[in-house]
Amino acid sequence: MDNLGVVFLSEVVGTAMLVLLGCGVVANVALAKTKGLGGGFLMVNIGWGLAVYAGVIVSYSSGAHLNPAVTLGLVSSGATEFGSGVAVSLLSVLAYIAAQMIGAILGAVAVWLAYKQHFDAEPEPANKLGVFSTGPAIRSYGWNLVTEIIGTFVLVFVVIAFGGGRQGDGGLAALGALPVALLVIVIGTSLGGPTGYAINPARDLGPRIAHFILPIKGKGSSDWSYSWVPVAGPIIGGVIAGWASLVLLPILG
User: Who is most buried in 68, 213, 218, 246, counting CB within 10 A?
Assistant: First the structure.
């Protein structure tokens, strides 16, 4: 297997692990008759942060992007190489994003299998969808977009700063997993309230697709009218963060 194949598989596995554990904690908090029912938003924040930790640990060879916003943010910051010596190119960017989407769908399917009986017992379609994808506390597409842009800007800008500026070796794995996990937790606790903080197009769109195709009892709508917000917002925020890092990090460093 060539290097691009290795990093593709690494991103699939890492993103699947991220979504399995991240959406899994939401299922534990939200679905009927689980041991964690009612655990609250802080439990979700901590669970997602540690899900990132686990995803990064198992995908070091790719640089553990696990997020199209991180991939595109690194490109806009001037990175020339991703994990395992893979050069930044249109092909490698598309491979990373495709792998992240595949991994996110697989992770979401695994959550459904793990919580199948609880999905069947849960009477509220909104709680079922909430396991898979984000939704706003107050629906206002423009302001929800702003929230996702800001949250993802923080994620990608700080990730690049952790790496000392441009990520020539490209990704979260270059930093170590724990700082990124803590960063995700603080973004959730501080900026996650309005939208549920997708801050990752694959994390939201992949599981939403899984929700749409899986035979979930009484699942209701997949809320496609909102689905563009947690895709566009993180992409915009990630790219702006990459550009900002070129200007600000040399000054601040």
Answer: 68
Amino acid at 214: L
Number of neighbouring beta carbons within 10 Å of residue 18: 30
Q: What's the Cα-to-Cα distance from 26 to each of 53, 72, 76, 112, 252, rounded to whole Å? A: 17, 27, 32, 12, 37
Give the residues across from 87 on adjacent strands.
Answer: 81
pLDDT tens track for 3-62: 999 999 999 999 999 999 999 999 999 999 999 999 999 999 999 999 999 999 999 899
Size (the chain), residues: 253
Whether pLDDT at 111 is above 80: yes
Distance CA 152, CA 5 (A): 27
Query: pTM for the full model?
Result: 0.94
d(CA 199, CA 151): 6
| Tokens standing for residue 161 | 């700063």
